[in-house]
Design brief:
Blueprint lengths: L3 H11 L6 H7 E9 L3 E4 H16 L3 E12 L2 E11 L5 E14 L2 E9 L1 H9 L1
Parallel strand pairs: 1-6
Antiparallel strand pairs: 1-2, 3-4, 4-5, 5-6
Helix pairs in contact: 1-2
Amino acid sequence: MPTPTETVSAFCSTFLEDGGRPAVRRWFTPNTRWVNEGVSVTNGVEEAIAMIDGLETSLGISTVHIDMLAIAADGSRVLTERLDRFERADGSEIGRVMIMGIFEIEGDKIVEWRDYFDVTAVQKFSAA
């Protein structure tokens, strides 16, 4: 069984595939709660995929590159400092956001994921 840190690292490193959909399908449970503080909350795989689909439609986000700057575990909770870079299907950059996140792990699944960031940075994406 992977450690919680290994689970989060694997999830983040594969998130760039197909907008994160395969990663969500692999590591989320039917009840995983994903909170983008001040922006959105999803529950389960299908709501998470629907949110990803909505961001692709509304903002053109096709790929998310997660650059892990720091990672630390406290038991089954994993804290991350990241630079998330958002791109269009043609590879051009939409924007980037510094994020602090926390993942709660059970077994090898993510049961909760909360991200905290400057919401105004994301709002600038839609203005561009």
